[in-house]
UniProtKB/TrEMBL annotation:
PROSITE patterns xref list: AA_TRANSFER_CLASS_5
Domain Aminotransferase class V: 6-365
Keyword terms, alphabetized: Iron, Iron-sulfur, Metal-binding, Pyridoxal phosphate, Transferase
Family (UniProt): Belongs to the class-V pyridoxal-phosphate-dependent aminotransferase family. NifS/IscS subfamily.
EC number: 2.8.1.7
One Pfam match: Aminotran_5
GO molecular function, one term: metal ion binding
Native source species: Kaistia soli DSM 19436
Catalytic activity: (sulfur carrier)-H + L-cysteine = (sulfur carrier)-SH + L-alanine
Protein name per Swiss-Prot or TrEMBL: Cysteine desulfurase
Cofactor needs: pyridoxal 5'-phosphate
Domain of life where this protein originates: Bacteria
Length: 384
């Protein structure tokens, strides 16, 4: 009998949760534009607003500060704007300062020009250097103001960044702060007020919601980015276009369900540490605080692509670094920023799991790892 495949690539996209599927089907079976005032329109609006509350609750935010977008990339690009609304007016930001290991959608700089962007060094574990960040802010002319963008958790290594400390430092210089929390949501507790950030971004498909829907959560009343998509007055004029009601409903249901995953942190930590202890595996970023369900493993002398194919043939899905870089042969910018030698950096595979993963999946992966290593690294003792 053919054994079921094992999926260990949640950081690329989690399986759709049954709660999200039900919410989406109900929305798809109903008619009504959420901007319409008749009963059908009000029902659609109700679905959107329920989801808004559910998404806000996942990060301790306020529902009236949630802006839905087409995904995490659009959310990030919208926030990364030199122009921000404050009340009836606006302010201009002069520099975008970011960590060197940010997601490509942030590294591209959003609506900032290339010569307005500064990248801040990380240490060998992938944690942003706060001293270097302070130097970058200190170097700004007194009449200039910055937007700082630092992800809460890295998509390739799971490294958790000291975002609250970044926000405190930013306050000394009058800088605004954006945290890309796309990989952290549902995996570690998030309180946007405790983080002290002005903007936080999310993506539904990382937590078991549908692809193609994301959100910006505003941290306070200070600022909101000028819309990237303009036209109608949807999302309180923050993002034009008829809302994708089914996807939004699925996002909300997934957000509500993923809150329960936080209770599995100890179990996930144990699984992650078992993966990191596999023979021949070299854990990347192991000296830093990390997500409980992510492990980046290097195997000296092997290519990540070779490992991904080998495990795929064994019925297990893993990733070579970030899914956003799949199909590319160059070394990940995250590994370069962490100063891994190219030969080691090119061997890194990412294992990430979540709501549907079982202990049997982890045990079976260990068995397959032993077989794959014995085949690709002759002479190695087979893993138990």
């Amino acid at each position: 009998m053919t054994r079921a495949r094992i999926y260990l690539d949640y950081n690329a996209g989690a399986p759709l949760r049954p709660q999200a599927r039900v919410a989406m089907i109900e929305a798809l079976q109903s008619v009504g534009n959420p901007s319409s005032v008749h009963s059908e329109g009000r029902a659609a609006r109700g679905r959107v607003e329920t989801a808004r509350r559910q998404v806000a609750a996942l990060v301790g935010g306020s529902a009236d500060r949630v802006i839905f977008t087409s995904g995490g990339t659009e959310a990030n690009v919208t926030v990364l704007s030199p122009r921000q609304r404050v009340g009836a007016g606006e302010i201009r930001l002069d520099r975008l300062v970011m960590g060197a290991t940010e997601h490509p959608s942030v590294l591209a700089g959003g609506r900032f020009a290339a010569d307005q962007i500064d990248r801040v060094e990380v240490d060998d574990e992938g944690v942003i250097r706060l001293d270097r960040l302070e130097e970058a802010l200190t170097a700004l002319p007194r009449d200039q103001r910055a937007l700082i963008s630092v992800m809460l958790a890295n998509n390739e290594t799971g490294t958790i960044q000291p975002v609250a400390e970044v926000a405190r430092l930013a306050g000394r210089f009058g800088a605004l702060v954006h945290a890309d929390a796309i990989q952290a949501a549902g995996r570690i507790p998030i309180d946007i007020a405790a983080l002290g950030v002005d903007f936080l971004t999310l993506s539904a498909h990382k937590i078991g919601g549908p692809q193609g829907i994301g959100a910006i959560i505003l941290g306070g009343d200070l600022a909101a980015p000028l819309p990237l998509v303009t036209g109608g007055g949807q999302e309180k004029y923050a993002r034009a276009g008829t809302e994708n009601v089914a996807a939004i409903a699925g996002f909300g249901a997934a957000a509500a369900a993923s809150a329960d995953d936080l209770g599995r942190a100890d179990e996930w930590h144990a699984w992650r540490d078992r993966l990191a202890a596999l023979p021949e595996a070299i854990l990347v970023g192991g000296g830093a605080e990390r997500l409980p369900q992510t492990a980046a493993l290097a195997v000296d002398g092997l290519r990540a692509e070779t490992l991904v194919i080998a495990f795929d043939l064994e019925g297990i899905a893993i990733s070579a670094g970030s899914a956003c870089s799949s199909g590319k042969v160059q070394v990940s910018h995250v590994m370069k920023a962490m100063r891994l030698a190219d030969t080691r950096a090119g061997s890194v595979v990412r294992l990430s799991f979540g709501w549907e993963t079982t202990e049997d999946d982890i045990s079976r992966f260990g068995e397959v790892w032993g077989r794959v290593m014995s085949r690709l690294r002759p002479g190695m003792t087979r893993a138990a």
